[in-house]
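Ticket #4471: structure output looks truncated?

Reporter: J.K.
Steps to reproduce: submitted the chain below (168 residues) through the standard prediction queue, then opened the result file.
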Amino acid sequence: ESRPHAQMPELMRRHSLTASTLAGDTKIPVPPLIFTKGQGEELVAISYLGNDLCGHVGIIHGGLLATMLDEGLARCCFAALPNKVGVTARLEIDYRNVCRSEGFVVLKARTERVEGRKAWVKGRVERLDMGGKGTGNPWEERGEVLVEAAGLFIEPKWAKVRLHPSVA
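Returned output as attached by the reporter:
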């Protein structure tokens, strides 16, 4: 369990779309709570989405959901890549249901395959069922699917040199 945005150095956080620009009382009031399984195998992130993230009144903007999936799927696979970093090469998104504001959502991601510097990841955003009799296990719970995505993430060739300068 972690809140990666809360651990980000202030200088980096200040220039981050999701850790700074989208953060706030009526946007994303607290950093997402993230759970991971294995070395880049699975990820679950729980977020609260406020009213100032809407495209239409009361409906979360689809671009925000795409951003959440881009970051969530990427974060899921990073630990499986050689230097633990990657960039989005492809992101396919299918919107299934309206995402209402002022509620909790759960992003679930699973790394499907890793080949060298490439990782293929699938995921979805679900509405968190606050009244159900669930198992209490975020990996097994299943809410209404709002958005599904599949992505390809590639570790840049410069990652080894930039992240480990002594290798150059």
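Triage note (M.O.): checked the attachment and the full token line is present. The chain has a mean pLDDT of 88.
Status: closed, working as intended.
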